[in-house]
Amino acid sequence: xxxxxRASFGSKLGFLAxxxxxxxxxxxxxRFPYELGQNGGFxxxxxxxxxxxxxxxxxxxxxxxxxxxxxxxxxxxxxxIIGNKRWNWIGIMGAVCVLLVIxxxxxxxGWSLEYIYQAITNQxxxxxxxxxxxxxxxxxxxxxxxxxxLILFLVINCAIVVGGVQEGIERTSKVLMPFLFTIIxxxxxxxxxxxxxxxxxxxxxxxxxxxxxxxxxxxxMGQAFFSLSLGMGCMLTYGSYMRKExxxxxxxxxxxxxxxxxxxxxxxTIFPAVFALGIDPSKGPELVFxxxxxxxxxxPGGYFWGILFFILLAIAALTSTISMLEVITAYVxxxxxxxxxxxxxxTTVLIALLAIGCSLSMGVWNEYTVLGxxxxxxxxxxxxxxxxxxxxIAISIFFGWIVDRKSREAELTNEGVLKLKYLKFYTFLLxxxxxxxxxxxxxxxxx
Length: 447
Ligand code: PFF
Prior knowledge:
Layout: H1 12-23, H2 26-38, H3 42-70, H4 76-82, H5 88-120, H6 129-140, H7 144-162, H8 165-192, H9 197-205, H10 214-227, H11 234-239, H12 248-276, H13 291-298, H14 302-335, H15 340-360, H16 375-402, H17 405-412, H18 423-446
Helix pairs in contact: 1-8, 1-12, 1-14, 2-10, 2-12, 3-4, 3-10, 3-12, 3-16, 3-18, 5-7, 5-14, 5-15, 5-16, 7-8, 7-14, 7-15, 8-12, 8-14, 9-12, 10-18, 13-14, 14-15, 15-16, 16-18
This protein binds 4-fluoro-L-phenylalanine.
């Protein structure tokens, strides 16, 4: 048993900033817009929102509750609740999942720093679309440059986590999140007001429900998990630092709502600009790194907007990676009784090695593949398609079926203080809809 009082977030706002910070990341700015572009615009958005609120919200609430109830890290929280270690594997799997996610995520974080640098030194200007594309591939397949950037990013990340929950994570999130929100709103207004920008909004908001196929549902659910940082114990870890008087259900709703809002604002920023300049909207991962510099080149004041956009990307990525590092740091330092600072540094070294592997797998190690995938894609697919869905199902079964009803409801209602009208609805979602929906999608994927 721990004798020291467990760290906690200092205020409700601080918690919200950190949890939204974890959720809002490359998933919203880099991945959501291209998934939307490739999967039929508005139809994808609707399916996405359904997944976020009907599966994401109950799951997030459950993760918060398990963390706060268990008052420990991603693994021991389970044992603290039921008195035996039988379900701790969920947390261990979660920590491994987070480690693999940050392994490939950090590579793209490094790219965001390179692109801030390129934007500041005005390197996009004068490049044709083809040249922008060539420079992106020569940079990402290069050896040293991406590695140096990702190491710099991880060092900044580590310094914040070493600072602790309140002084490091909460303080950083409280400064960066309002800044991030302001940048995205300003960029969105700028983009919509471009001549022809409204065409982009039409593309976004014209429903074509024929586009909804099982594979679209699959992508939407995977995206919701990733974007809400679910299924790997990240929200569980943050929940363990939450105070007893916080309203878990409302907070989870606010996090899902803000994350979805920011994803929509990102799409409303990118598509109007892309349409205004007559560029193909269905580009994949290169949308942000090739298409957008091309957009900035052609738009008035593009130099300034370009810098602002890539700063936005880096900030969003950073508030997500601190939550990932926190999951592993809390787990290792508590389970193995190690010093927190040393653990964060050691973990960062391990992450850097994985990330370097992922980065090289796009270039010189490209021929080494497993199941036809390089290391970067392998980590991405293995976590998104296997570990996160298993984690999601396991948490819903644990909290919905294994934890007894009285303890569950006592935690959700703050020992009966809160009267929750949605309790029945939530329990129904948690016990039946969440596991069955994930299982259906998971089975479909495996087949
Ligand atoms: N939610 C983050 C994003 O949308 O970019 C990604 C993420 C953060 C995944 C934290 C996992 C995690 F533990």
